[in-house]
Amino acid sequence: MFTGLNRSAMFSSILVVLFCIPVARADQAGESTALTIYSTAQPGGVPPEIYQPGMQTRYSPSQYRQVIPGYAIVKQDRTIPFDQQRSTVRFTDVAAQIDPTTVTFVSLSDPEGTHVLEQNFEFDLVSTEKLMERYLDREITVEQIQGDKIATVTGTLLSTSGGLLLGMEDGGVQVINGYANVRFPELPGGLITKPTLVWDVFTAKPGQQKVRVTYETKAITWWTDYNIVFTEGKDANSGLLDVGAWVSIINQSGAGYTDAKLKLVAGDVHRAPQPQAHYRAKGRRMDIAMAEAAPSGFEEKEFFEYHLYTLGRPTTLTDNSTKQIELFPSARNVPCEKVLVYYGLGSAYRYYGSPISDRNYGVQSNKKVDIYLRFKNEEEIGMGMPLPSGRIRVSQRDPADDSLEFIGEDKIDHTPKDEEVLIKLGSAFDVVGERTQINFSVDKRRDWMEETIEIKIRNHKDESVRVIVKENLYRWSNWKITEKSHDYRKIDARTIHFPIEVKKDGEVTIQYTVHYTW
Questions:
Q1: CA 457 → CA 172, 369, 374, 464, distances in Å?
Q2: How far apart are CA 264 and CA 40, in angstroms?
Q3: CA 224, CA 218: separation in Å to the nearest integer?
Q4: Residue from 89, 108, 118, 86 nearest 196 by CA
Q5: How far lies 388's CA from each of 288, 325, 359, 415, 468, in Å?
Q6: Residue spans of the chain under pLDDT 50
Q7: Alpha-carbon gap, residue 167 to 188, rounded angstroms
Q8: How far from the centroid of its chain's Cα atoms is residue 149's Cα?
Q9: Residue 434 burial by Cβ neighbours in a 10 Å radius (0-12, 13-18, 19+)
Q10: Strands (DSSP E) found in 344-419
């Protein structure tokens, strides 16, 4: 007879019994696992509050795994004994988030003579609710604590909604809202503790064979976190960077991978659209397993039109965990430029399909001057490796106590070698801007309008700074600068830059007039 201790402990007791049931399965001796994870998560886009077993929430574990947007290809090699030509093979320890349509089974020992006739994926996992469902209209025994005594009630389970509803031998019905223990005559068949792949296999050569099983699983992803230490340079417009990169891997696939060969694919791999269920993540923070740096780190190479990063040593990814591994050794003393950018419009304005003749459009002024760090990802300055997309955190050392203080963060997209990296940190405290519309006129009969803009940049620092003043010519596509106080660079069809230098405690005023025609 199967007995549960109480309602909260019942599921644990079920597991103890089921683990003792012998199950025909592939021999795990000599097993090897290879894992290729695809970078589909937005950098920093996965919240740290993700599902953990035992959390009291109204969402199931499978729903929480939906917040992990990545996927991986799992390859497992195992040795299987085929006692006869036609055998049933049960393959356990597969990921709960497996896509059964992607499963392949190949014999490495006899690929020509071994064929899969049928394939099944069994995922009817045991739970308290399912055990109760299996015993509807069957007899169970319920124990209740009444004072210092235990009362026993035996009857037919009619319903589990709002408590247990038991049918009694005398034809009566009893409702039980609280109970200490439930006893079942036996454990019903058909329930399993782990997702299982089952194959009906024919082989021309019975005996021990090594097979490879490959499948895709969801709820596993990776991205890169860059940690940068900035050091001021000779002036306010330069500096040096120490750049470190760590791979962050989240595994919520429903399986662990021990001593796995790990590969990471960086690039935008296209996939057929799939319907997505969205759930709001709740929970508590998970521990981060920090992998120690080792000589056998990641080796990078081009792969098709992507980049492949292969870890030179096996690693273990347990289920419901986050792991970090160093992507490459820190690059030291990388020269960079500090760039101040003033964009007086404050936000990007939409370009409409007709000229914008409203004089009040775009006259609001933003005073913030944004701060950027810029460097080129080239070998000559100590970089030159393809940089996967990721979040960049920048710190600066405080000489007063030699501590690192956070000064800003940004995200970068996949960046090849010899391309520029631009990191936005925040807004300057001591450098401010002001943008004003000085004149505006329009003649709709002759299809033209003219606008004069004045921009002031004030520097309250005790050293000079270089500032790029960015302007969008947003009123219409046909424009011409008729008057200007400073030289400018045309960036694209509707963007110009005024590069200026502002002395300490100084001010620079820029004026320009733009003439639009249509």
A1: 88, 9, 21, 12
A2: 11
A3: 19
A4: 89
A5: 21, 14, 44, 6, 28
A6: 4-25, 27, 48-61, 276-295
A7: 20
A8: 53
A9: middle
A10: 368-376, 390-398, 403-412
The structure's pTM equals: 0.70
Q: Residue 474: left if φ>0, alpha if ψ -120 to 50, beta else—which one?
A: alpha
pLDDT, tens digit (0-9, with 9 covering 90-100), for 245-289 = 999 899 999 899 999 999 999 877 776 665 544 433 333 333 333
Give the burial string for 393-415 (b: 16+ CB within 10 Å, else e). bbbbeeeeeeeeeebbbbbbebb
Please check whether the two domains, 2-38+71-126+192-218 and 128-184, share a CATH topology. Answer: no
Domain spans of the chain, in order of start: 2-38+71-126+192-218, 128-184
Topology at the third CATH level for domain 2-38+71-126+192-218: Immunoglobulin-like (2.60.40)
Q: Are 409 and 392 in contact (CB under 8 A)?
A: yes
Closest CA to 8 of 51, 48, 47, 56: 56
How would DSSP label each residue in 391-404? EEEEEEEETTTTEE
Give the per-residue pLDDT at 304.
84
According to DSSP H, which parts of 27-162 are helical?
61-64, 128-134
d(CA 160, CA 171): 19
Give the CA-trace dihedral at 131, 133, 136, 142, to 10 degrees.
40
DSSP state string for 434-462: EEEEEEEEEETTTTEEEEEEEEEEEE-SS
Fold of 128-184: SH3 type barrels. (2.30.30)
State whether the Cα torsion 18-24-25-30 is positive or negative. positive
DSSP 65: G
455 contacts 472 by C-beta, under 8 angstroms: no
Strands 220-232 and 390-398, by their bridges, are parallel
Q: What pLDDT is stored for residue 514 in this prediction? A: 98
